[in-house]
């Protein structure tokens, strides 16, 4: 029984240890509505819980596609928006510059690379749009972008996404290994991502907001292997 408990506990950790599960992102296409196809393949249930008053939840890597869900929505001042990151692949949520797709907005928030975690922003100015994208190489040009309060700006979600996809391999090079950046313009983060699995498996990696996502995954993967060995020994 102890072994079973251990096994259940380490499953998400093992998933972290092998992050490349989606296959390559779809090649950048001229299709102006790239999300419609992936949404039509409704299969796995989203991991984010339903919204509640003043609280919205966004799935990152929705149904193992390079999308945010929802990706185009409005939210008044004070709304907290929590991004739910999957276990199987690292992603980011970075505030974007609408005039420069797949590039960060100066002064914007940045979750940094993360998996199996949550990252929350609060809308502080609903009179302006807030654009966001995933800066992991190839994800943004695959259409992994979103906007809050699109109707307050001049660049629609569809335009922003089409511009991102048109970049193809010419995606701006962006630092992938920085620590999370709090603050933001129009919406603000007050902390970096918090781990979903922290309560289930307290580890030296929890609370390491300055640790890079890559390091976190490496350390977590190592701990996962350690637990596997321990459970195997217990089973004998
Ligand atoms: C939301 O907050 C911003 C910044 O304080 C303010 O300018 C704006 O009027 C507020 N929106 C509403 C609907 O009150
Ligand atoms: C949208 O365009 C109008 C007119 O060019 C400009 O005044 C306004 O500042 C723009 N809004 C944003 C959010 O860029
Ligand atoms: C995005 O949302 C706005 C309303 O907030 C809506 O008018 C628009 O059609 C949506 N765009 C897409 C591509 O769904
Ligand atoms: Cu991503």
UniProtKB/TrEMBL annotation:
Q: Which UniProt keywords apply?
A: Signal
Comp. bias regions, Low complexity: 32-46, 179-206
- The identity of this protein, by name, is Blue (type 1) copper domain-containing protein
Enumerate the Gene3D superfamilies for this protein: Cupredoxins - blue copper proteins
Tell me the leader sequence span.
1-17
Q: Answer whether the UniProt record assigns the keyword Signal to this protein.
A: yes
Please give the residue ranges the record annotates as the region Disordered. 24-56, 175-212
What domain of life? Eukaryota
- Cited PANTHER family: CUPREDOXIN (PTHR34883:SF4), SERINE-RICH PROTEIN, PUTATIVE-RELATED-RELATED (PTHR34883)
SUPFAM superfamilies on file = Cupredoxins
Q: From which organism does this entry originate?
A: Cerrena zonata
Zinc as UniProt keyword: no
Give the transmembrane ranges: none
